[in-house]
Specification:
Layout (H helix, E strand, L loop, with lengths): L1 H23 L7 H26 L3 H16 L4 H18 L3
Helix pairs in contact: 2-3, 3-4
Length: about 100
């Protein structure tokens, strides 16, 4: 029965987090600082979740660094995301065979 209570509490918290900004902030935000802060927030949160996962996904920091460098270069060249992801993964795999762990 406690599992149902946990799920209900988490559903309520999730709903409140999503509902409160819509109900409390009805008019346009005038502060340039706050608007720019809220604009960059999703990118910062996504980076904070993704960067550590990148370096621990392969089990080897050097191969992760090589794959990340390739991904950054290809993304800078505006290649499609699927190309960037596949090339980074392939580079990390191949460098795992070449680089000493």
């Amino acid at each position: 029965m406690s599992l149902v209570i946990y799920i209900a509490v988490m559903a309520g918290v999730t709903y409140l987090i999503r509902m409160l900004p819509f109900t409390l902030l009805r008019k346009k935000i005038q502060s340039r600082f706050l608007r720019s802060f809220l604009y960059y927030m999703p990118y910062a949160v996504l980076s904070a979740m993704t960067i550590p996962a990148i370096f621990y996904a392969t089990g080897s920091i050097p191969t992760a660094i090589v794959g990340t460098v390739v991904a950054v270069i290809l993304a800078y060249l505006n290649l499609p995301l699927i190309i960037v992801a596949l090339a980074a993964a392939a580079t990390a795999l191949i460098s795992g065979f070449i680089l000493p762990i």
